[in-house]
């Protein structure tokens, strides 16, 4: 499976997202970033995962970390999803799946696999989890610990 491993530089990107703006990894240089790749807006596990991370957003903020969600749906789909389920961090539209491909999270049929990366303040991957089944997600406590460890 291609994509960065722990200790590798995180691939950069520029993607449109919620809040009517473009997002880049470089925007967050100097702070940790949690990249949450999720398969689809409005799917049951994605709802649980993103609501959990959103409910604990202050835990990430207290560590100086920015959480970004990425999936292949459009910005308008993300806007509706975020509004309906109270997701309070930016959701980015990787409609051509190019970022997912660079992070090695695409399954054999080209679908996003539920995956999470913690990128440190210097742009290096310090935690990587790529799900094989996408049926479960990484617990928020595990992610905040990974952010703490990356400092």
Describe this structure in words.
By secondary structure, this protein is of the alpha/beta class. It has one domain (30-150): Glutaredoxin, CATH 3.40.30. It has five helices and seven strands; from the N terminus they run βββααβαβαββα. The chain has helices at residues 44-55, 57-62, 75-85, 98-102, 140-150, and strands at 14-17, 21-24, 33-37, 66-71, 91-93, 115-119, 125-130. Strands 5-4-3-6-7 form a five-stranded mixed sheet. Strand 6 and strand 7 form a beta hairpin. The longest helix is centred in the N-terminal third of the chain and has 12 residues, at 44-55. It is globular and about 35 Å long. It starts with 13 loop residues before the first strand and ends with a helix. The model has no long low-confidence stretch (mean pLDDT 93).
What is the CATH architecture assignment?
Answer: 3-Layer(aba) Sandwich
Total number of helices: 5
Tell how many strands the DSSP assignment holds: 7
General shape:
globular
Mean of pLDDT: 93
CATH class: Alpha Beta
Helix content: 25-40%
Mind summarizing the main beta sheet?
Answer: 5 strands, mixed
Order of helices and strands: EEEHHEHEHEEH
Topology:
Layout: E1 14-17, E2 21-24, E3 33-37, H1 44-55, H2 57-62, E4 66-71, H3 75-85, E5 91-93, H4 98-102, E6 115-119, E7 125-130, H5 140-150
Parallel strand pairs: 3-4, 4-5
Antiparallel strand pairs: 1-2, 3-6, 6-7
Précis, in short:
This protein has one domain: Glutaredoxin, CATH 3.40.30.10. The protein has five helices and seven strands. The protein has helices at 44-55, 57-62, 75-85, 98-102, 140-150; strands at 14-17, 21-24, 33-37, 66-71, 91-93, 115-119, 125-130.
């Amino acid at each position: 499976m291609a994509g960065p491993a722990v200790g590798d530089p995180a691939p950069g990107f520029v993607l449109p997202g919620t809040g009517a703006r473009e997002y880049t990894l470089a925007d967050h240089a100097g702070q940790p970033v949690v990249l949450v790749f999720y398969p689809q807006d409005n799917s049951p596990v994605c709802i649980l995962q993103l609501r959990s991370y959103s409910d604990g957003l202050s835990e990430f903020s207290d560590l100086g970390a920015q959480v970004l969600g990425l999936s292949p749906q459009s910005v308008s789909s993300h806007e509706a999803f975020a509004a309906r389920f109270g997701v309070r961090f930016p959701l980015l539209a990787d409609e051509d799946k190019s970022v997912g491909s660079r992070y090695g999270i695409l399954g054999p049929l080209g679908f996003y696999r539920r995956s999470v990366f913690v990128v440190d303040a210097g742009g290096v991957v310090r935690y990587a989890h790529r799900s094989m089944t996408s049926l479960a997600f990484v617990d928020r406590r595990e992610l905040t610990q990974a952010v703490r460890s990356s400092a």
